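INFO batch 0412 | record 1 of 1 | parsing
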Amino acid sequence: MGQDPNQQSQYGRGYGGYTQPPRPSDTFDSQQYGQQQGSYQQSSYGQQQQQQSGTYQPPGSAARGTGAHDPTSTGLNGRTEALLSYVLGWFSGLIFFVIERKNRFVRFHAAQSFIFFGIVSVVYIVIRLLSIIPVLGFLLSPVLGCATLILLIPAALIWVLLMIQAYRGVNFRLPIISGYADSLIDRFTSKKKRRTV
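INFO prediction complete | emitting tokens
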């Protein structure tokens, strides 16, 4: 009778009969100097849980062992090289793919730039060639004009997005093209390894 109905009982209140442990009021105050935020903590059920850091890391990027901050062949920052591989489209992608040998992060962005903007350039050239055919170009000019806009506007938006993500150090992967970029890197990396062995 003298028990407060709002007070939680020790048994039977939580999921499966367990009560939740009290939460600290401020998680940043309890962090000691020198501890990293991405460390593992023991939960109340004996499982390890990783605290999330502020940056996104795609599932495959940690397994490769190279990243935006690893050394590069040119001595530039890896993020800067990845950004520069997108600046001039397929041309700068090809240059950085050939020059960079140490950093897989930069090679991936260079290969992705080379493949994506190479495809965009080929499609644009085909559209332009169709437009200069004397009768067919005149008849298809409204369709070809719309096709040019449909090609170039998304390509420009993707170009800006890829440069921003590369400079942030994110291994941003375009859906189909990233698979071809990975196979291109593996093809040229494996030949180099065979020569040294």
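INFO post-check: The chain has a mean pLDDT of 76.
INFO record closed
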